[in-house]
């Protein structure tokens, strides 16, 4: 392509990108929206003329026609959906800017933003498809069998319990002669009822989950349309489809972890851990967050190109912002200057993606929002009390902890607070520490050790979510279970038969402690929140 043509091509891409960013900027003030647009301009300029992204999308090689057609269809769907959402969001908030010409401008913006969306989706497919193809092509028979059976069994359980109970989608409780909606905490500390809308709300974005609505957009839109289609016959259809998608992601997580530690035992150990069993039944943000975290931690992506290096990490941090704490463990710390360079580049890529995807406005109020969240969620507890809670949190990464049913303000299944040190948790933490020490040369063990260190920083040190530490057990349990497994294997490295016995006992212990808790959870859901009352 000639220089003049490349300049025109790049200019069109930049203008289209600004239009795309504008349609994705939902819920911000006018100042926040303009600030986001100003941030995205240099990023699009770099993508256009430094990395020549439009030229790569225009080339016929690299992507088959079917993928290009899917990219175009996906771009059209996304831009149309978000253009309408932007118009519906902006019209009531900025009435002075709307008039008879408003929808013509929206239509023009949709048409203009389509090109940038297509180019970005082509770049995503060009980067992700080879990795996905290698993963799917290397699946063994038992991995595929496990994944299919796990997803099928959990899906059947989800459909059964959602058919009979309101607890996981729209719980209602009796208040005299009225039925009152329960927004959260019907089942433990999970916010499932209030979160279902987040999956299908295009404008959902906050500092803790900046890119969540975009990452969950395909599944969220499919669930929303499916819910409209069969809602009269099965009002729980939307929530059930989201839960099934989460269960499939959890199955993939177990496969990735088993590959990383090179043992099929990990399939059973991770799948039977209590937080996985609980979150397999519920709609939550953490299924997507943990899946992206495990993809980031388990793939050798940091040995490849920058897009594959930073992409999984940025996606994980976009789903849940605290996932960015994993970044220091991914780069080579043996070379401090290179490590600092990698961290700086990862931060710049992340900020660029926030700007491009219409989240630049979040950066304006980030300090105040973080301070408010810490004030809201950091309960006043002494360090000793938080450490006692943390010992129970470690137990919760593996097995059910004491729970009970509270009746006020509505029936809820709740975790009981720790009244002292949980010595089972201390023993499990010691096993995790041994797993790290005995396998420190393994990169994955160091990543898991770092992530458990992050749990110490966030929970007992900063006191984030003090009083409900078990809620975060699923977020960290993949690292804890992996380190415990490595600890058992390290301690019994020279006695293969004894190691197999120890792992069988560990699986049996998980079944023994977790089956009654899941049985009671399902019984509570069907009893306290029956469907159709």
Protein model, in words:
It is a single chain. With 533 residues, this protein is mostly helical. The protein is 69% helix and 3% strand. It contains 22 helices and 4 strands. Strands 1-2 form a two-stranded antiparallel ribbon. A two-stranded antiparallel ribbon has the order 3-4. A hairpin with a 2-residue loop joins β1 and β2 (178-181). The model is unreliable at 301-307 (pLDDT under 50).
Q: How do you describe this structure in short?
A:
The protein contains 22 helices and four strands. By secondary structure, the protein is mostly helical.
Fill in the keyword field for this structure:
533 residues; two-stranded antiparallel sheet; two-stranded antiparallel ribbon; 22 helices
Q: Work out the strand percent.
A: under 5%
Structural Rg? 24 Å
Topology order in helix (H) and strand (E) letters = HHHHHHEEHHHHHHHHHHHHEEHHHH
Instruction: Identify the strand order in the major beta sheet.
Output: 1-2
Layout: helices, strands, pairs:
Elements: H1 3-24, H2 30-50, H3 53-58, H4 65-93, H5 102-137, H6 141-164, E1 172-175, E2 178-181, H7 192-200, H8 212-215, H9 217-230, H10 237-261, H11 265-271, H12 274-279, H13 286-298, H14 306-319, H15 327-330, H16 336-356, H17 366-377, H18 383-396, E3 403-406, E4 412-415, H19 423-438, H20 443-461, H21 473-491, H22 496-528
Antiparallel strand pairs: 1-2, 3-4
């Amino acid at each position: 392509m000639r220089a003049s043509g490349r300049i025109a091509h790049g200019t069109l891409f930049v203008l289209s990108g600004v239009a795309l960013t504008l349609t994705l900027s939902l819920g911000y003030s006018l100042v926040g929206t303009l600030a986001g647009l100003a941030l995205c301009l240099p990023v699009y300029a770099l993508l256009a003329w430094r990395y020549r992204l439009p030229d790569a999308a225009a080339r016929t090689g690299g992507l088959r026609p079917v993928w290009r057609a899917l990219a175009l269809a996906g771009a059209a769907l996304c831009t149309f959906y978000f253009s309408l959402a932007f118009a519906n969001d902006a019209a009531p908030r900025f009435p002075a800017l709307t008039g008879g010409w408003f929808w013509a401008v929206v239509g023009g913006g949709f048409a203009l933003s389509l090109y940038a969306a297509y180019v970005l989706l082509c770049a995503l497919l060009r980067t992700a498809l080879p990795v996905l193809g290698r993963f799917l092509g290397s699946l063994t028979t038992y991995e595929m069998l496990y994944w299919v059976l796990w997803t099928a069994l959990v899906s059947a359980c989800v459909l059964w319990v959602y058919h009979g109970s309101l607890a996981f989608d729209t719980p209602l409780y009796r208040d005299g002669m009225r039925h009152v909606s329960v927004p959260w905490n019907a089942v433990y500390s999970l916010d499932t009822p209030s979160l279902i809308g987040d999956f299908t709300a295009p404008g959902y974005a906050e500092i803790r989950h900046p890119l969540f609505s975009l990452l969950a957009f395909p599944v969220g839109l499919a669930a929303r349309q499916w819910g409209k289609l069969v809602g009269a016959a099965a009002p729980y259809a939307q929530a059930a489809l989201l839960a099934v998608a989460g269960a499939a992601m959890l199955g993939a997580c177990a496969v990735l972890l088993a590959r990383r530690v090179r043992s099929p035992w990990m399939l059973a150990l991770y799948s039977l851990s209590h937080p996985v069993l609980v979150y397999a039944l519920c709609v939550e943000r953490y299924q997507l967050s943990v899946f992206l975290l495990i993809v980031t931690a388990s793939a050798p992506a940091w040995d490849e190109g920058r897009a594959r290096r930073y992409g999984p990490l940025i996606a994980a941090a976009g789903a849940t912002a605290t996932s960015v704490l994993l970044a220091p463990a991914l780069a080579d710390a043996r070379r401090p200057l290179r490590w600092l360079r990698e961290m700086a580049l990862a931060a710049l890529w992340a900020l660029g993606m926030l700007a491009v995807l219409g989240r630049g406005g979040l950066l304006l109020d980030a300090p105040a929002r973080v301070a408010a969240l810490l004030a809201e969620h950091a309960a006043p507890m002494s360090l000793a009390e938080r450490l006692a809670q943390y010992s129970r949190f470690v137990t919760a990464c593996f097995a059910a902890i004491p729970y009970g049913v509270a009746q006020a303000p509505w029936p809820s299944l709740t975790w009981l607070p720790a009244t002292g040190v949980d010595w089972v948790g201390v023993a499990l933490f010691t096993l995790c520490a041994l797993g790290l020490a005995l396998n420190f040369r393994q990169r994955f063990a160091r990543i898991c050790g770092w992530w458990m260190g992050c749990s110490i920083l966030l929970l007992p040190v900063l006191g984030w979510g003090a009083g409900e530490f078990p809620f975060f057990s699923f977020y960290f349990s993949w690292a804890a279970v992996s380190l415990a497994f490595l600890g058992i294997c390290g301690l019994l490295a020279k006695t293969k038969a004894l190691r197999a016995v120890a792992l069988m006992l560990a699986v049996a212990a998980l079944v023994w402690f977790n089956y009654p808790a899941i049985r009671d959870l399902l019984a509570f859901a069907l009893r306290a929140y029956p469907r159709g009352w």
